[in-house]
């Protein structure tokens, strides 16, 4: 009788431990899935977040959009004032502009434009 009780108790203990192991295994799988999903967002981030203000990620765009000047295009209207006109072109190591043309200094570049503000040369 003593052997039967020991066998019954050991079987019961084995069943409880097996169910506890199965339950813990399920928790580990769920935890692993949550862990993987948490780091999946770094693969393709399409949430259109902006750079933090303290970051240098957008350095160079603080003062507006940078413009690429090309020959034949017109100078944008915000740069068509005398403020951007270069009067002392030799000081800036530029050649004398032809009649009807002017040198303009825009965003750190020198642009030769005609009277209708069409770009002739970018230096």
TrEMBL record:
<dbReference type="Pfam" id="PF11776">
    <property type="entry name" value="RcnB"/>
</dbReference>
<feature type="compositionally biased region" description="Basic and acidic residues">
    <location>
        <begin position="42"/>
        <end position="52"/>
    </location>
</feature>
<protein>
    <submittedName>
        <fullName>Uncharacterized protein</fullName>
    </submittedName>
</protein>
<feature type="region of interest" description="Disordered">
    <location>
        <begin position="42"/>
        <end position="62"/>
    </location>
</feature>
<feature type="signal peptide">
    <location>
        <begin position="1"/>
        <end position="22"/>
    </location>
</feature>
<dbReference type="InterPro" id="IPR024572">
    <property type="entry name" value="RcnB"/>
</dbReference>
<keyword id="KW-0732">Signal</keyword>
């Amino acid at each position: 009788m003593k052997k039967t009780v020991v066998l019954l108790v050991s079987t019961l203990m084995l069943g409880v431990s097996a169910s506890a192991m199965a339950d813990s295994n399920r928790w580990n799988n769920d935890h692993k899935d949550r862990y993987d999903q948490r780091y999946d967002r770094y693969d393709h981030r399409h949430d259109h977040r902006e750079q933090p203000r303290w970051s240098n990620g957008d350095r160079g765009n603080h003062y507006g959009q940078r413009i690429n000047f090309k020959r034949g295009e017109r100078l944008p209207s915000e740069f068509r004032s005398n403020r951007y006109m270069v009067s002392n072109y030799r000081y800036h190591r530029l050649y004398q502009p032809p009649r009807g043309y002017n040198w303009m200094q825009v965003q750190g570049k020198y642009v030769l434009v005609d009277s209708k503000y069409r770009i002739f040369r970018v230096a």
